[in-house]
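S1.2 Input.
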Amino acid sequence: DSWNAYINPRIPMTPGSSLINHITDDMLVDKPFEEEVLPRILKMFEGCILVAHNATFDIGFINAALERHGYPRLTNPVIDTLALSHYLFPEKASHREESLLKHLGLAVYSREDAHEAIYDATKLNDGWQAILPILEQKKPGITHAELASLQIKMPPESLKQDNPEEYAKQA
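S1.3 Output.
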């Protein structure tokens, strides 16, 4: 089951956001407000394990909206494919969603379509489906709880300033 909707944020899109997601103010003017779509989002998420790339950002964004409108925060188990990318491909320099999909040998991620919810969700599901057999081979019997607890070990921030090339290799 899939669903895609634009949401009117009640504030103008910043030029930087529009550049990244290709969404303009004109596209949002007649769209529902977040409080109108939150019940549908909560219903879709009910009983689900959520899989997201850079889940901290997405889940944080959703939780902030939920709190603004008097709903409790999400309690769903969350699996972050950014952490999985670091776990499965520690030698790789980049762990963006596009890079993860390339590491998995999947079709190229379209920057023109990127950051559209339905496109990103479809591509991420393709990546998740490719990750499952790799995980089963690397760590047979791994549980969702173990996946949800994966943490990204980032190099120290001081390395970023002192040796940016080494930081990039480790990030």
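S1.4 Remarks. The chain is about 55% helix and 5% strand.
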